[in-house]
Amino acid sequence: MMEITKRGTVIIVEGTQPKVGEKAPEFKLKNLNDQVISLSDYQGEVALISVIPNIDTSVCAIQTKQFNQIAGKLEGVQLMTISNNTKEEQADWCAGNGVEMEMLHDTDLTFAKSYGLYMPELDLLARSVFVVNREGVLVYEEIVSEMSHEPNYEKAIEAAKEAVAAK
């Protein structure tokens, strides 16, 4: 069991988180167009996976916009944002913020459980960032220890750039 905090209160995160150097767990989730997207669809590309607890909160909105602005422009990097918001909540947020990106909804928590990110007490996913290289191996991971904090964008982007540059 992993523990993070929400404004100082301890929150339990269930399951086992994948470790850097391991094969990233496969997942299949629907995007806003009801297409099933799986990690293996991006074999041969670098994937940056941004996980947020709730798109309708300020820190999650900031995180999503930041990665969309920076990672969205990186050649050879596929950016995905994952939360357990409903498709409608995600679509409304994207429309309201003029954001177009690969937004995946994990309403049945399959991703949350395979990546060890589910917080039962809050019924949300822990804020985190993963970078998966072309071979499907996890090369970067950050599970943010305090929910109200933003992830380290620079480190994640750097890891994605290094993964793209690696031949």
Automatic annotation (TrEMBL):
<keyword id="KW-0575">Peroxidase</keyword>
<keyword id="KW-0676">Redox-active center</keyword>
<dbReference type="GO" id="GO:0008379">
    <property type="term" value="F:thioredoxin peroxidase activity"/>
</dbReference>
<dbReference type="InterPro" id="IPR002065">
    <property type="entry name" value="TPX"/>
</dbReference>
<dbReference type="Pfam" id="PF00578">
    <property type="entry name" value="AhpC-TSA"/>
</dbReference>
<dbReference type="InterPro" id="IPR000866">
    <property type="entry name" value="AhpC/TSA"/>
</dbReference>
<dbReference type="InterPro" id="IPR013766">
    <property type="entry name" value="Thioredoxin_domain"/>
</dbReference>
<dbReference type="InterPro" id="IPR036249">
    <property type="entry name" value="Thioredoxin-like_sf"/>
</dbReference>
<feature type="domain" description="Thioredoxin">
    <location>
        <begin position="18"/>
        <end position="165"/>
    </location>
</feature>
<keyword id="KW-0049">Antioxidant</keyword>
<keyword id="KW-1015">Disulfide bond</keyword>
<protein>
    <submittedName>
        <fullName>AhpC TSA family protein</fullName>
    </submittedName>
</protein>
<dbReference type="InterPro" id="IPR050455">
    <property type="entry name" value="Tpx_Peroxidase_subfamily"/>
</dbReference>
<keyword id="KW-0560">Oxidoreductase</keyword>
